[in-house]
């Protein structure tokens, strides 16, 4: 990054013609001509994207590989990523959340505020124009004579401060970069909301399946209790067998109630994500007639270099680095003088009837040149502060990139290992079911005690519940991986936010400003045509 020396003699010659001609006898005209020649020259370093970790250039992620069972399908903004789970009800819930979520509305408002800041910063490129008018009637005394008279005055005033040294253009650049960062934050908020709805819905449906599992288990435990009671009445079983069967049944019923509590809380969480109160929202549980349509999607593809363009948080961090870089130019421009052109014209005279008489015409033209000679190091401190902010933003960008790589690698590893673990757990479930059938047959025949039955039943329940939990972890890892890869979003969808200097400065022309995306279209992203990498 270019360094700055606060000694005026070290600034490039083309940036200080007014200062170099300080002793000229024609200072006003010379300074004006020199300043006009310097229009559009913005001080401060031109932005260069911060370096990324060397691992970003690798061909594939460490945890990726040929282990995936099917050809992966790329996430696509036109085909919302959550639709790959194959559940129409989930699609409808995400659509509702995208239209009514207060969190998303807050992020959208922040983005609009950032756009307004761009307009405010760009206003500095234009002159300010004002108008004033006054009229009055009064009595005055002159040479002992009392005079009653009317007065009037009106005028138009205009002032313009040319952006000779880039203070306004750098400020507008910083505001535009911050607005793009806010647009990336909005995309990140959309992705986070979508992932939250998908995760809560999937967990709720898995709780429905766990409730069904416990319903079958409780029914089996009741059969076992009736069998133990019959054996006890026949004298072939002990009273302790009946008590143990009763305890087993009550424990399973208590666990089923706990699952119901978890489901209710997930339903409440979904209601809030949809912008509704829990009392206004409910999801009927799954039944055998209406089973879940959820299916585990295939793993989306991704390369390290693509990750830098897919994640909205990475794009937002990079745009904040660009904004911090522009602020260095704003702080550096304080070393240069402020030059203002002014003009006014109007009428001022006596009487209230004629407000535009030629003899009453007044006008004025002028300019002002002001510069700080000594400020006790205040400008140096502001430049140092801006540089430190830039360094902090660059470090934050690198940390965001590293965290993104960790997210992807963690979830790739999780999907691979959970798939292997689930295969082993399914074998355990099959073996536990077979064992339970054999032990129950032995107990009926009197060749096994009830303790063995209870132990086998507990193992079978634990195995089936573990299998469901593993399935839930697989779904969660799949959602987390899609989110870690940006969910189909890309930096090309960042809005190109123009400012008024685009027609005059040397920066590349930007496309017309994009409007915020409509919240009613869940698959819509921020309309854009330029990637920040091109700036």
Write structural notes for this entry.
With 535 residues, the chain is α+β, with helices and mostly antiparallel strands. 53% of the residues lie in helices and 10% in strands. It is built from ten helices and four strands; from the N terminus they run ααααββααααββαα. The protein has a four-stranded antiparallel β-sheet with strand order 1-2-3-4, with no helix packed on it. Helix 3 packs across helix 5. The longest helix has 67 residues. The N terminus and C terminus are likely disordered.
Q: Give the biggest sheet.
A: 4 strands, antiparallel
Number of helices: 10
Structural class: alpha+beta
Strand content: 5-15%
Task: Indicate the overall shape.
Answer: elongated
- Tally of strands: 4
CA gyration radius, whole angstroms:
37 Å
Q: Order of strands across the widest beta sheet?
A: 1-2-3-4
- Helical percent range? 40-55%
| Head-to-tail CA distance between termini | 16 Å
Series of H and E elements = HHHHEEHHHHEEHH
**Low-confidence parts, pLDDT < 50 over ≥5 residues?**
1-39, 67-77, 500-535
Q: How confident overall, as mean pLDDT?
A: 80
What is this entry, summarized?
With 535 residues, the protein is of the alpha+beta class. It is 53% helix and 10% strand.
